[in-house]
Amino acid sequence: MKKLFVLFLAILSVLVLAEVKNPDTIIDATIGEPDTLDPHYAYDTASGEVIYNVYENLIAYKGESLTEFEPRLAERWEILDDGKTYKFYIRKGVKFHEGGDLTPEDVEYSFERGLIFDPTAGPMWMLWEALFGVDSLETFVEEKIGKPYSELFDENGEPLPEYRDALIKIYTDYIDPAIEVEGDAVVFHLVRPFAPFMYILAQSASWSAVLDKEWCIEIGCWDGRADTWWKYHDIRKEDSPLYARMNGTGPFKFVEWDRAQQKVILERNDNYWREPAKIKRVIIWGIDEWSTRRAMFLQGDADICAVPTQYLEQVEGKPGVTVIKGLPELAVTSLHFAWNVPEDSKYIGSGKLDGNGIPPDFFTDENVRKAFIYAFDYDTFINEVLKGLGRKIPTDLPEGLLGFNEELLNDPDAPHFDIVKATEYFKKAWNGEVWEKGFKITLLYNTGNDVRRQAAEMLKAYIEMINPTKFKVEVRGVQWPTYLDATKRGEVPVFIIGWLADYPDPHNFIFTYYHSAGVYSGRQGENFRKFISTPHPDLGGRSLDELIEEAIAKTDPAERQALYEEIQRFAMKHALGMPLYQPLGVRVQRSWVKGWYYNPMRPGDDYYVLWKAEE
After folding, report:
1. Which of 60, 425, 525, 534 is the most exposed place for a label (fewest CB within 10 A)?
2. What is the tens place of the pLDDT at every residue in 302-361?
3. Which domains are delineated in the chain?
């Protein structure tokens, strides 16, 4: 009888383990939280994942494809005028979550608001480049008016009288005509053909999301007028009315962003224009501490889990767990240097080369940059920390895109681990003062990202080993929004950052990292921007900026390949960055999660296609 009872309990326990928990809810245990919920400010995957599921674009990538598109808020489209005009016919009968009807005017307003807002280090540079051939609103204004943007306004932010009319014309004569409503359609007019334009519109992370014009104006976004637009340009993140509010047309509605718990809650949109999602509720929960996240996942209280590669063995082979490894990612993770930081930065110690800090322009010395690059064991990091789920790359251009050439890894200037060379360059740095006086520097990482933490700790270990009494590296973890803000303000002298492709073209990586107007150039400082915008003899008297601009203008793949290889050789020769690895993705979920598919251009999960069922 006792044996039968024990057997009964064993069978019962198996049944309990097999039971699908919270069948109507997807709980995604991740790290960090969104930076913002404003689609035109957000430029990180944590924010993008939420936006992706609440808002919608005109078009979307078709399933797993990186080259095919399918309709979303546009029913169909036409590409005219040899690629300079794009016409999208807007779907009828679509409702925003707050009850408004989708109209072509909403689409026009959404893109114009994004172009006007254009936050510093935000994503809108892509649309400025595609539509107008410049990198930002402020660059465009300076080109048209002939004076720097900052000199056009008084101390209260109001236009100086002599420039007011010219500023109004920036909207009436340029921005407004570039995006027009024609009946049921919206038409985009580009200044020249730009091949990645459809990719930009399809990437649902944020920048091409469609907003409800009337609702946005009502809550305090740009009022749609030509004579006020500058009041809504580059406002502070938290001052945006969309910072923590959402109203999209997508399959899920925004319910709550609990900042204390790093938790975002979404609920199903039962009035969605397609079939409603199978799941009623989504909880995206930033749980930075791995052991807590692991316990929650293995108990079945989370359905999807962010698992650092070094901990994969703790979940692989467990009952009810599915692990998919080796997913090709169009992404890089790299370390970059700020060539000058503010003198009051909290991360440079004394601010002097006295053994207790570094000067603000410490990394202008190429010897310092090269010493750091040679002081990292790339192969061991990929094999032991990433468990082989990464690729060594010569620059910040991932394998799989035009311009990549694995042979560049054999170039003498390619990043590789060499303590002898690292020592030699440290001894040369700052005319020998670095070796003699020593330095102290802070290396930040975002809390919960154990891979970045271990990268920082490996670099610290080797640098301190080279000169144990005089070289000091502090590794410090901070919350993701804090990390992101500090890097955007250029306060962090050394930062580890990832880049997931906005669109599958080499320009998206090369421009981002190596052009003076790229997203990461501001974080690397004015000295960096001057260096890459200045003509160099080893580029035939051209600047790196000019070479990058030439590469995107070419249509012949062979010509582009040659130019991108030349750009990368220059970047390696002058130690413009330190590519740590190209990740191979890992997906970890409960086996009861169904419907998942992989597309490397997606900023996170597409919860619309997921459901839960017993195996």
Report:
1. 534
2. 999 999 888 999 999 999 999 999 998 999 999 999 999 999 999 999 999 999 999 999
3. 21-33+248-323+586-612 (3.40.190.10), 45-239 (3.90.76.10), 331-583 (3.10.105.10)
